[in-house]
Amino acid sequence: MALSSTARLPAAKPAKRPGGLRRRLAPYGFLAPFFGLFAAFGLFPLLYTAWVSLHRVELQTSDRMDWLGFQNYSRLLSDPFFWNALRNTFTIGVLSTVPQLLMALGLAHLLNYRLRGRTFFRVAMLMPYATSVAAATLVFAQLFGRDYGLINWVLSSLGVHPVDWQANTWASQFGVSAIVTWRWTGYNALIYLAGMQSIPGELYESAAVDGASRWQQFRHVTVPGLRPTIVFTVVVSTIGATQLFGEPLLYEGNSGGGISHQYQTLGLYLYEQGWTFFHLGRAAAVAWVMFLLIVLLALLNAAIAARRNRTDR
Amino acid sequence: MTQLTQALDKPVAAPRSSARRSRSPLHGGPLAYAVLIGATLLAVFPFYWTLVAASRSNSELSSATPALTPGPNLFHNIGEALQQAEIGKALLNSLIVASVVTAGVVLSSTLAGFAFAKLRFRGRGALLALTVGTMMIPPQLGVIPLFMVIVKLDLQNKLPSVILPSLVSAFGVFFMRQYLVQALPDELVEAGRMDGASLLRIFRSIVLPVARPGMAVLGMLTFMATWNDFFWPIVALSSQNPTVQVALKSLGQGYVPDQSVVMAGTLIGTLPVLVVFALLGRQIVGGIMQGAVKG
């Protein structure tokens, strides 16, 4: 992946000069504030989650840990609600990520034209990104209201039967995905736009000379030039989708993810185990499963990207 | 700690010289404008509608034909929201938390970013790889041990519980490193050393002035991400001592039955970020586009 290669960039090489121990230790002093807190509040919790997941830990007595071995995991794997949450995370992930990135790509293409008011369009499209998950979800929950929501009002005035955006499985998952899509489409469009602007203009000119239509230019110049950016946004959106939490929590305001758990995601299931049912150990097992899932998805992405690169050559 | 937002809004930083913007290849036709205006309306409409719903009475919100223009009840509803959901306290708390976190992240990231960009020391490659490698792992996955630590330190429901874990950011370090690799010439640091200045002195009088634009972008992104942080604050704090997002969660979970008051709370909880956005939108757009990965 692009990330690991950056770690190997050539180092700046200041000439060696006598300075003694003090000078040689000084760089660590610059790193100390970051790594001190990072170790305590970043790395340690991540790793310790695995250890906690092998114990019974209750929310109210969280300093007491009783060894359980893999019981939390076997319980998890035999819980139908876990599989339900896994399935929902996947379907909501697809519903929210795929249209979002496709629309972002199209919008970026348009934003890349010579336009009047370009700054206005960019800022306006980024505004949803500045909104918090909580605020956006509360507003959309209103808009998606079954009886008095604006969306159902529009639908019924168009002669379409109103939709139950809460109880219906697909409709509710669509509603949750719409919030994610609203918040992130503009952001991703700007990321793509930045990528497009680094594609040399000559490529388009020579494509135009060869008689390529706008669509062909988009397919054969823009998309290949954007490939690293696309891989990046796919990885980031997949990770985001895996841990989706705030939107389904506040969509109707309960950690069950709907009356029949129809839009409960893994993130919500983790929260429910820990802070509704008070089983921190089980919640830790969910966290660890989510971690493995993310690693798996990252590897999958890297493998697909590497494969595409090879077949292109 | 910043979760979903953070994982998503932390692209790989690779500042580029602003001069290198390629010419737009094509002029936009009427269709392009139509689509862009449509998309802009979709992006902006929920904000407008929040204002509409926040300025109406609850009965107007639950009538068969919804109101589409702002009504007269805005200030009444805001007053109710301030009273019922501790929104005033929440605004103050969020301001404190986001300011302290932003200062901490920007400072610690600039220090470490400088070391990674311009200093040579043993273990540099490994430490940088560790930082970059964990950047993509959502901090949300560490909340359980973090919660246990906070309980042990007796910090539950106190602001330090949300400040401490967020004070440093792996993304911030990487961002500042990338920025300084390009923006800070080796010769400048070397000249300082020749003059016999200590590293701390070099940092203060040579690195900081050069790093300032990068620090500003990182600061804006950190402030917004911290203001909007959700998972960890709702775990660590409660509705008695909330940040804005914690207060919004209480609103969403029916502590306040009145929908128009809920919308008024949402409106004032979002307003500060929107003001920042109105003032600095252009710079934020620039920062995000700078942060995008490059081929």
The CATH superfamily of chain B appears as MetI-like
Radius of gyration of chain A: 24 Å
Please give the order of strands in the largest beta sheet of chain A.
Answer: 1-2
Order of helices and strands of chain B: HHHHHHHHHHHHHH
Count of structural domains of chain B: 1
Task: Summarize the biggest pleated sheet of chain B.
Answer: none
Poorly predicted regions of chain A: 1-16
User: What general outline of chain B do the C-alpha atoms trace?
Assistant: globular
Please count the beta strands of chain B (DSSP E, at least 2 residues each): 0
- What is the chains' assembly state? heterodimer
Q: Please identify which CATH superfamily of chain A we are dealing with.
A: MetI-like
Give the beta-strand count of chain A: 2
Helix content percent band of chain A: over 70%
Given helix and strand content, the structural type of chain A is mainly alpha
How does this model look, in words?
The complex is a heterodimer of chains A (313) and B (295). In chain A, 73% of the residues lie in helices and 1% in strands. With 313 residues, chain A is mostly helical. Chain A has one domain (71-312): MetI-like fold, CATH 1.10.3720.10. In chain A, strands 1-2 form a two-stranded antiparallel ribbon. The two termini of chain A are 18 Å apart. Residues 1-16 of chain A have low confidence and may be disordered. Chain B has 295 residues and is mainly α. In chain B, α10 crosses α11 (199-228) and α13 packs across α14 (259-291). Chain B has helices at 4-9, 30-54, 58-61, 74-84, 87-118, 124-135, 143-152, 160-163, 170-183, 186-194, 199-228, 231-236, 244-252, 259-291. Chain B has a single domain (4-10, 86-291), classed as MetI-like (MetI-like fold, Orthogonal Bundle). Chain B is built from 14 helices and no strands. In chain B, 69% of the residues lie in helices and 0% in strands. The chains are: A mainly alpha (313), B mainly alpha (295). Chains A and B meet through α1, α2, α4, α5 and α6 of A and α1, α2, α5, α6 and α7 of B.
